[in-house]
Amino acid sequence: MVTDKQVRRLMNLIRRGKGQAAAAAGAGMDEKTARKYLGSGKLPSESRREHTWRTRADPFVDVWEEVSSQLGLHPGLQAKTLFEDLRRRYPGSFAEGQLRTLQRRVKIWRATEGPSREVFFPQEHHPGVLCASDFCHMTGLGVTIQGQVFVHLLYHFVLTYSNWETGSVCYSESFESLSAGLQSALFELGGVPGRHRTDRLSAAVQKPESPDAFTRRYEALLGHYGLSAERTQAGHAHENGDVEQSHRRIKEALDQALLLRGSREFASREDYVEFLRRLFRERNAGRQSRLSEELKELRPLPCRRYESFTKLEVRVGPSSTIRVKHNTYSVMSRLIGEMVEVRLYAEHLEVWYGQRLLEHLPRLRGESRYRIDYRHIIDWLVRKPGAFANYRYKSDLFPTSRFRMAYDALCQTNLHRADREYLRILRLAALQTQDGVDDALRLLFASGDPITADAVEEIVTSGQQAPAPTDVMVPAVDLSAYDCLLAGATSAPGLLEAR
Fold it and tell me: What's the predicted TM-score (pTM) here?
């Protein structure tokens, strides 16, 4: 077969004045072939016809009309599904190796006759105009704090022009986490962009049946900073693509940094947060040029932050508890029947009454959980000891494992008085100190003395100090026992010879 290189050589020889026969010989082709290419003025690659015919018989020619009609009705059907259906309906007509042929035909059908595909339009970003944020699940990275897996999320904030990013650790996609994370990001940035985009977070975006696009709390938060709100369409996460792409990259970067560190274990949450901050600083170091363009366009921050909590009016129930976001918390029994103000933050809540802060409680994660402080109800439990046995929140009335051990020991020695006796010990912990009662129980367990409320009270009031848990006395080993063994061995020489 004549190549383009031969025809080019032929034409060069003709231009140099060679005759047709000599030029054909010099190009390594027949004179008739040379005449053909000289007459057409085209290279072989330009003269070749497109291959539009089949080299083999189409095994699906008789059933293709059925297949295409099925694809027209249900474009999502896969070629393998259609192939298995054909083999069921036409036994023996199609071999296993013909699946690839059908896959190619279906692929061509989708590209030439199938439904149009969604088009993504690249956007041009401008400095200081748009910021985006979202929550990113980080538990899968396997970070542990003091040996426990750290279940957490990252509130992730990104400037779409410079890709400057920051984030804060949180535990849920609540409005309080969104408010605290967004405000921390803006104050770290030192200015306010024009618009803020999120996906359809329930903390910010109303449900579809609501006439308002955004929640009033979210609008109030953005209004405080002069930010305009944007949201993505439902099921279109790519519309928040800048922060979605940054999620993947920050996870990869954090995973690599943890591998370099050689451990995913941290002594405290603060150490882990500082590790994250260093990682963000390193990633932002190469974005300073475009960030400087953004900073020129940002508006100044307000003089103070917006309230990063939600106010709730809650009535204290007869069980001395309040319900907040489907979770139960205990409060002082004297508040039963009163309306209290609860200020709900991202990680804690405050209970206010009469413009006074009465309680500062850690916020429970999830739903249908409870936190009962025995100090709130112990006075009435001592008066009603019969309520303890089947109390719904009984497990919260064992402050430490040693209190639970004491209750179990009381149940073994005197089952009928165990509840009453244990509640007296618990009341002593509320009146004195929980650590002091815990140490007293440790002394009683070590000495083997019976566990009673009077014995615990006597140790606590006497001021007797329990040794530290690390003070372990190891008795000296009596080496004379080995001398006896050796003496026994010498008295039995036959045994040594056998060995």
Answer: 0.66
- Number of Cβ within 10 Å of residue 132's Cβ equals 25
Burial of 418 (0-12, 13-18, 19+ CB in 10 A): buried
List 313's β-bridge partners, or say none.
341
Whole-number Cα distances in Å, 215 to 199, 201, 204, 255, 452:
14, 10, 6, 35, 56
Distance, in Å, from the CA atom of 206 to the CA atom of 213, rounded to the nearest integer, reads 6
324 forms beta bridges with 327
Distances in Å between the Cα of 289 and the Cα atoms of 262, 293, 294 are: 33, 7, 9
What pairing do the DSSP bridges indicate for beta strands 153-159 and 130-137?
Answer: antiparallel
Residue 352 CB burial class (10 angstroms; 0-12, 13-18, ≥19):
middle
pLDDT digits (tens, 9 = 90+) for 302-333: 999 998 888 999 999 999 999 999 999 999 99
pLDDT in tens, 471-493: 666 777 777 777 777 776 555 55
CA distances from 428 to 209, 420, 434, 440, 468 (A): 55, 13, 8, 11, 22
Cα(495)–Cα(70) distance, integer angstroms: 90
